[in-house]
Amino acid sequence: PPTTTPPTTTPPTTPPTSAPAGSCTVAYSVTNQWPGGFQASVTVNNTGSTAVSNWNLAWSFTAGEAVTSLWGGNYTQTGAAVSVTAPSWATSIAAGGNAVVGFTGTSTGTPAVPASFTLNGKACTKA
């Protein structure tokens, strides 16, 4: 019967790659603070050459903070993880443009700046 010769070389494999950094910067600032609470502003800048549609900005708090009210987007918080989605009236961030969200929150001490931010799942640089 006919036989086939097995290949003598191993097929090439593609090495895994890490997720590329997004084309964005984020500036986070605590704009007011009082015992047990604070107010903050988050500006995300689209540094890319195309608009970011249906944006989703995410971060995790590190010191037990919790959002109590947010404007400029719609938010959910599960544990320390916060996700802010685009409001219906501003679903995209133009190339070179930005989106600003503000919020009030609770904290047990001094509110900390989150360690990292993502826009639509891609890492942003902190401004």
Structure description:
- With 127 residues, this protein is mainly β.
- It has a single domain (24-126), classed as Immunoglobulin-like (Sandwich).
- It has strands spanning 24-34, 37-46, 52-53, 56-60, 66-71, 74-78, 81-85, 92-93, 98-106, 117-119, 122-123, 125-126.
- It is elongated, with a radius of gyration of 21 Å.
- The chain starts with 23 loop residues before the first strand and ends with a strand.
- Mean pLDDT is 90; it is low at 14-20.
Largest sheet, in brief, is: 5 strands, mixed
Q: Note poorly predicted spans.
A: 14-20
Q: How many separate structural domains?
A: 1
> What is the highest CATH level, the class?
Mainly Beta
Helix and strand sequence = EEEEEEEEEEEE
Approximate strand percentage: over 45%
User: What CATH architecture label applies?
Assistant: Sandwich
CATH topology: Immunoglobulin-like
Rg (CA only): 21 Å
Our count of helices gives: 0
Find the count of extended strands (DSSP E, 2+ residues): 12
Helix content: under 10%
Mean pLDDT: 90
Largest sheet: spatial strand order: 5-9-2-1-12
Q: Care to give the gist of this entry?
A:
With 127 residues, the protein is mostly beta strands. Helix content is 0%, strand content 49%.
Give the key terms.
single chain, 127 residues, mainly beta, Immunoglobulin-like, 5-stranded mixed beta sheet, 5-stranded antiparallel beta sheet, elongated
Topology:
Layout: E1 24-34, E2 37-46, E3 52-53, E4 56-60, E5 66-71, E6 74-78, E7 81-85, E8 92-93, E9 98-106, E10 117-119, E11 122-123, E12 125-126
Parallel strand pairs: 1-12
Antiparallel strand pairs: 1-2, 2-9, 3-8, 4-7, 4-10, 5-9, 6-7, 10-11
